[in-house]
């Protein structure tokens, strides 16, 4: 019996088993460390997919009539709107003024007024 447990073949099998266990453990740890999707992130992903699909469909159907975005993504817009003020009035919000959003929103409003003929 002693010869079986101390043989090179048995030792090689134990080493192989140990390596497989370590690999499986490392894979399980990596999977556990991945960020889990919450209901909010899944809903947001779905919204963005739908929005992107709709924008592609509109651009394909209307060709050059779809306007390019004038205002890029920015933090501070939702904060201003949540406070009940127009964005171009939120001059105390650093996120708004630092990206020159008031100027952009004023130019959008002026452009809309011109296009609508008001």
Explain the overall architecture.
The protein is mainly α and 118 residues long. 68% of the residues lie in helices and 0% in strands. The protein contains six helices and no strands. It has helices spanning 2-5, 8-33, 39-62, 77-82, 94-97, 101-116. The longest helix is centred in the first third of the chain and has 26 residues, at 8-33. The N and C termini lie far apart (98 Å). The model has no long low-confidence stretch (mean pLDDT 76).
Which terms would index this structure?
mainly alpha, 68% helix, 118 residues
What would you say about this model in short?
The protein has 118 residues and is mainly alpha-helical.
Question: Could you name the ranges where pLDDT drops below 50 across 5 or more consecutive residues?
Answer: none
Shape from CA axes?
Answer: elongated
Which secondary-structure class do the elements indicate? Answer: mainly alpha
Distance between the termini: 98 Å
The average pLDDT value, as a whole number, equals 76
Helix-strand string: HHHHHH
| Biggest β-sheet strands, sense, barrel | none
Beta-strand fraction estimate? under 5%
Q: How large, in whole angstroms, is the Cα Rg?
A: 29 Å
SS element count, helices: 6
DSSP E strands, number: 0
Q: What level of helicity do the residues show?
A: 55-70%
Write the layout of secondary structure elements.
Blueprint: H1 2-5, H2 8-33, H3 39-62, H4 77-82, H5 94-97, H6 101-116
């Amino acid at each position: 019996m002693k010869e079986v447990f101390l043989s090179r073949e048995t030792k090689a099998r134990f080493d192989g088993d140990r390596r497989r266990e370590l690999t499986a453990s490392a894979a399980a740890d990596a999977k556990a460390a991945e960020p889990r999707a919450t209901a909010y992130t899944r809903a947001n992903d779905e919204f963005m997919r739908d929005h992107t699909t709709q924008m592609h469909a509109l651009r394909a159907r209307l060709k050059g009539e779809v306007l390019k975005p004038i205002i890029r993504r920015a933090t501070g817009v939702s904060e201003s709107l949540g406070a009940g003020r127009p964005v171009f009035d939120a001059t105390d919000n650093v996120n708004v003024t630092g990206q020159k959003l008031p100027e952009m929103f004023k130019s959008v409003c002026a452009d809309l007024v011109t296009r609508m003929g008001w």
